[in-house]
């Protein structure tokens, strides 16, 4: 905890020099390490597709006849709300505009072909391949918890290759636990650092307040109070309620934009986007988007690092609420509630932004290039009727998104850093609240450093060591389901003999 506090202070004091150094590091990693990110995602997706379709998909995370602890809607809302944050509201609007001027597959900027592909890459980056990286940790931890009946307080406990008292295994387990916390800090810090400027800009547009660093600091204080109250309430009382509230506000906001905007054009455009997405899924997976599409390739690396950084916290959280579900139900649930829900944001918000740009109502691309992402969000919302109400709903959605993500992350990280917890025992509340404060300070440091490229670099760096953790988890899943099947076969043979 002290180490991350020092890093937070370093970010706050780093300034332009630190920003340049981080950007240079991102360029080096993009040039030399992108094949590792692409490779682990492809291997992970193919393996889990096989696992879900095979007879192993029937394995229940719990007793054979055990029923799920949460109903489908409760489970799905917690998965969706915890797996994403307010960044989906921002990026689903601005990503298509970036691809419109930097199109993949050799299309010319702002051409008809560029409009066809503008919303495809973003939906790929938030689609099934991305969500399946969470499923790896979820299945590994859920199997260890509810099938093998092991105590899994940390992600390293779900890796069977590291079981045992040998000193070198203990060292590797400690290293993995540190890597996990490092990744979570990078992912959470990047999310808040990306979203606070957007909320600040929207509030400025709505209230007339100046969009200054003092407004951003005020938002950090409000979030700190909100996060602290949620974490203090615990999992069921705090996070579960926030998840339900989030689903209602998010769906309500999307429906309002869909119904107020060009409804049939948005629906028709999404049908074409899905067609192009599946038609180009192989090329997108291999990051082969054309010789002159460096932007799309760079974005894939950023997203894959970001999703990897969230893998441990999401795996531990979803496994915790998935007792009684089969492996197949977990995988399908994450693909539907998670991936397709995220794609709906791109369909509505991204589709509406492209409609405004193409119809000439507002030059959002120019606004993005001159004033940044926050200005684009505010401009898009102000084109809607009842703009003050829509701005207020947007801000409310952002706060609930952030509170849900940060609260659940603090809950998980505090579990990692606690001493051995008894079965059913929750981490100490003061420990959880201390991590909330660290999250806020780290995120404030990222905001002070500035630039979206800094956020991208933090995500890529945070996700890199988790590539190897993901590989170990895949091996552990295969060992677990294969070795667990052998006693079952022997038991069936004995029954047949007698």
Features:
single chain, 498 residues, mainly alpha, Amino acid/polyamine transporter I, 79% helix, globular, disordered C terminus, Glycine/betaine ABC transporter, transmembrane, transport
Task: Please provide a written account of the structure.
- The chain is globular and about 65 Å long.
- The chain has 498 residues and is an all-alpha fold.
- 79% of the residues lie in helices and 0% in strands.
- The chain has 19 helices and no strands.
- It has a single domain, classed as Amino acid/polyamine transporter I (Up-down Bundle).
- Helix 1 (2-53) packs across helix 13 (327-359), helix 3 (87-101) packs across helix 15 and helix 8 (213-233) crosses helix 9.
Short description:
This protein has 498 residues and is an all-alpha fold. It contains 19 helices and no strands.
Give the class from helix and strand content and strand pairing.
mainly alpha
Query: Which value, in Å, is the CA radius of gyration?
Result: 22 Å
CATH class: Mainly Alpha
Give the end-to-end Cα distance, rounded to a whole number of Å. Answer: 59 Å
Membrane topology: Multi-pass membrane protein
Organism: Latilactobacillus curvatus (Lactobacillus curvatus)
Transmembrane segments: 35-53, 73-92, 129-147, 175-193, 213-235, 247-267, 301-319, 331-355, 388-413, 434-455, 461-481
Protein name: Glycine/betaine ABC transporter
């Amino acid at each position: 905890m002290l180490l991350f506090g020092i890093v937070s202070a370093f970010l706050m004091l780093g300034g332009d020099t630190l920003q340049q150094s981080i950007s240079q590091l991102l360029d080096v990693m993009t040039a030399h390490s992108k094949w590792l990110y692409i490779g682990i995602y492809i291997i992970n997706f193919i393996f889990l597709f096989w696992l879900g379709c095979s007879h192993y998909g029937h394995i229940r995370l719990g007793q054979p006849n055990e029923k799920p602890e949460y109903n489908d809607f409760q489970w799905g809302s917690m998965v969706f709300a915890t797996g994403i944050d307010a960044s989906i509201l921002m990026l689903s609007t601005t990503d298509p505009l970036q691809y419109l001027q930097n199109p993949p597959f050799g299309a010319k900027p702002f051409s008809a072909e560029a409009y066809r592909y503008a919303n495809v890459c973003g939906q790929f980056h938030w689609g099934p391949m991305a969500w399946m990286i969470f499923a790896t940790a979820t299945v590994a931890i859920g199997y260890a918890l509810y099938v093998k009946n092991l105590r899994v307080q940390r992600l390293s406990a779900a890796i069977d290759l590291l079981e045992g008292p040998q000193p070198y295994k203990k060292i590797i387990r400690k290293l993995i636990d540190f890597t996990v916390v490092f990744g979570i800090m990078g992912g959470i810090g990047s999310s808040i650092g990306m979203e606070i400027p957007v909320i600040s800009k929207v509030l400025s547009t709505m209230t007339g307040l100046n969009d200054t660093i003092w407004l951003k600091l005020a938002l950090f204080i409000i979030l700190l109070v909100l996060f602290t109250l949620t974490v203090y309430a615990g999992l069921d009382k705090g996070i579960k309620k926030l998840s339900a509230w989030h689903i209602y506000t998010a769906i309500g906001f999307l429906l309002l934009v869909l119904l107020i905007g060009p409804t049939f054009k948005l629906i028709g455009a999404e049908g074409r986007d899905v067609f192009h997405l599946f038609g180009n899924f192989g090329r997108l997976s291999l990051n082969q988007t054309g010789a002159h599409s460096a932007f799309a390739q760079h974005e894939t690396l950023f997203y894959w690092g970001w999703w990897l950084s969230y893998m441990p916290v999401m795996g531990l959280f979803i496994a915790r609420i998935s007792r009684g579900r089969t492996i197949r139900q977990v995988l399908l649930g994450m693909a539907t509630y998670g991936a397709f829900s995220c794609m709906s944001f791109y369909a509505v918000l991204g589709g509406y932004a492209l409609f405004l740009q193409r119809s000439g109502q507002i030059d959002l691309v120019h606004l993005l290039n001159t004033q940044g992402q926050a200005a684009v969000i505010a401009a898009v919302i102000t084109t809607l009727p009842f703009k003050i109400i829509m701005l207020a709903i947007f801000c409310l959605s952002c706060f609930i998104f952030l509170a849900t993500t940060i609260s659940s992350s603090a809950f998980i990280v505090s579990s990692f850093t606690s001493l051995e917890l008894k079965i059913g025992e929750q981490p100490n509340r003061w420990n959880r609240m201390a991590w909330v404060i660290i999250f806020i300070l780290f995120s404030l440091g990222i905001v002070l450093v500035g630039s979206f490229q800094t956020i991208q670099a933090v995500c890529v760096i945070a996700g890199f060591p988790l590539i190897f953790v993901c590989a170990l988890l895949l091996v552990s899943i295969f060992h677990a389901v294969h070795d667990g099947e052998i006693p079952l076969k022997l038991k069936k043979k004995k029954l047949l003999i007698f």
